[in-house]
Amino acid sequence: MMEKLDELYREVILEHYQRPARKGELPSPTVSVNGANPLCGDELAYQMKLDGGRIAQIRFAGKGCAISQAAASMLADELEGKTPEQARALIRSLKAMMQGQEPASPDELGELSALEGVRKFPVRVKCAALSWNVVEQALDSHEKAGK
Ligand code: ZN
């Protein structure tokens, strides 16, 4: 399926797959959540350190296809430094993009817009969506813990 993706998208995705940003572990994460996409065998774990109302640090670990791991890397890259509200807004935009809607602001998604080509392949959308589904769970569990 990779060969059917637009060349530019493919480069960004392969770059993140081969040299992932923010892969690793945090010494004392505030939240730690993992998930899997059994359809493809993708596994993903996110750790976040929340500090001062922001995602001060985010790291991921996982294995699986290029789409799932590249999406995890790009999302981690975009989320570090954002507030949980900004993170949720970004995830809403990602979901909208996957449903074929134009993003509210074109720059908002950064490199994640490379995933747009994936929406032509519904099975692969689940690979990409694993990353933001796990992040949402992490944000949910952080909010619950704070109450
Ligand atoms: Zn996959």
Question: Can you summarize this structure?
Answer:
With 147 residues, the protein is α+β, with helices and mostly antiparallel strands. The chain has four helices and three strands. The longest helix has 25 residues, at 122-146.
Layout of helices and strands, plus pairs?
Blueprint: H1 7-18, E1 31-37, E2 42-51, E3 54-63, H2 66-79, H3 84-98, H4 122-146
Antiparallel strand pairs: 1-2, 2-3
The structure holds zinc ion.
Descriptive report:
The protein has 147 residues and is α+β, with helices and mostly antiparallel strands. It has a single domain, classed as Alpha-Beta Complex (Sufe protein. Chain: A), CATH 3.90.1010.10. 45% of the residues lie in helices and 18% in strands. The protein has 4 helices and 3 strands; from the N terminus they run αβββααα. A 3-stranded antiparallel beta sheet has the order 1-2-3, with helices on one face. Strand 1 (31-37) and strand 2 form a beta hairpin. The longest helix has 25 residues, at 122-146. The protein is globular, with a radius of gyration of 14 Å. The protein binds zinc ion. Zinc ion binds at residues 37, 40, 42, 64-65, 67-68, 127.
